[in-house]
Amino acid sequence: MNRTIIALGLLACSTHIAAQDVNIYTPGSDEGIVYFLPKTALEVNIIATRINYQPGELCQYANRYLRMNNVNPQPETYWEIKQIDVRSAGVPDSTKAYIIKLKDKSVLSNIELTEDGIAKAINTTFPKEYEQNKDYELEKPLPHENSRKYMTEEILMAGSTAKMAELTAKEIYNIRESKNLILRGQADTMPKDGASLKLIIDNLDKQEKALTQMFAGTTDREDKVFTIHVTPEDNVKDKIILRFSRLLGALSTDNLAGDPIYISINSTVPLPVVTDDGKKKKKPEGALYNIPGKGHVSVSYQGKKYFEDDVPVTQFGSTEVLVNDLFNKKINTRVVFNPATGAILKIDKD
Question: Which stretches of the chain are assigned E, i.e. beta strand?
Fold first, then answer.
């Protein structure tokens, strides 16, 4: 749950508001509201599918009666990578910690923070429409029809598995013939309208599928998300972030049972050269925010690129200051920040 910190004695007063005192935070120094600007961690999400195959009871007769080749008579469970997605996630940057003194009674003191203390909004509430949707549409196993529910008495009373397979195959062919007659308009009794036609065809499809799985078996597919966070650096090429095995799924980087998943990162804009002149850092003259740069990120597995795009990266950008003149009793200023990057999403003034 996000927390909102609102200082006592806010904008409602009509007294003169002095320039807000924003300092670089040093533990144990001044009292006030401490907030962080975020730095970027790349959230790499591997959406993998666990596939569970169970052979049908009549699988050994699949080729003989239904001409179904290569039906596996053995159960099998394996994994496949369905998708890889990369997003920017914000984590507090300990080198960009600031404190807002409460004594100044400025709207800057009305600041909303995340649970980690990252600034989200000033003089307003973070809008829900800016909340990042982190949910993926994941595939889940569906219940299978009971095949015996559609077997005739003759099939169920068959004296051998071979005879049961023969009679089940005949029933499947009868169902297919019934569908063809209806679709051609040649059935003795035709549906009265389109809705009735669809209902009958759907029911026949369900019966055919249930009986066919006695030969072909059933396959369940279930998606799972594996997440790893990567600290972005410039000029990273083919760094192993995870391993993946068809039999075991996602594995740690040191588990050689899987093939490596690689990430490459490059800043799309050259990073400025930072020099340390030995001078003391100047005191900020207002609220600080980030202007994130961009990193070109690609993720590959077994020679195939599953992700390639430009992603906002705070470390490849710069930090700027919102001047205090925006926050005074004559102008009602509201600012919304991106908690993942520290960039300004919206400024309202009235």
Answer: 3-6, 22-24, 33-54, 76-100, 110-113, 119-122, 218-230, 236-245, 249-251, 259-267, 286-301, 304-323, 333-337, 344-349
Other beta carbons less than 10 A from residue 305's beta carbon: 12
Predicted TM-score of the model (pTM): 0.78
Q: Give the C-alpha separation, 338 to 132, whole Å.
A: 10
Locate 215 and state its tokens: 């030969």
d(CA 51, CA 79): 6
How far apart CA 315 and CA 272 sit, in angstroms, is 11
Give the tokens for residue 247: 């039999």
DSSP-derived 3-state class of residue 24? strand
Task: Locate all alpha helices (DSSP H) within 4-132, ordered by sequence.
Answer: 62-66
Q: For the segment 152-197, what is each residue's pLDDT rounded down to a tens digit?
A: 999 999 999 999 999 999 999 999 999 999 988 888 788 888 898 9
267-276 per-position pLDDT tens digit: 987 655 555 5
Name the phi and psi angles at 126, rounded to 5: -60, 120
Nearest to 309 by CA among 295, 319, 322: 295
Residue with structure tokens 């049972």?
A: 257
Which ranges constitute the DSSP H helices of 87-193?
153-156, 161-184
Q: What are phi and psi of 51, to 5 degrees?
A: -110, 125
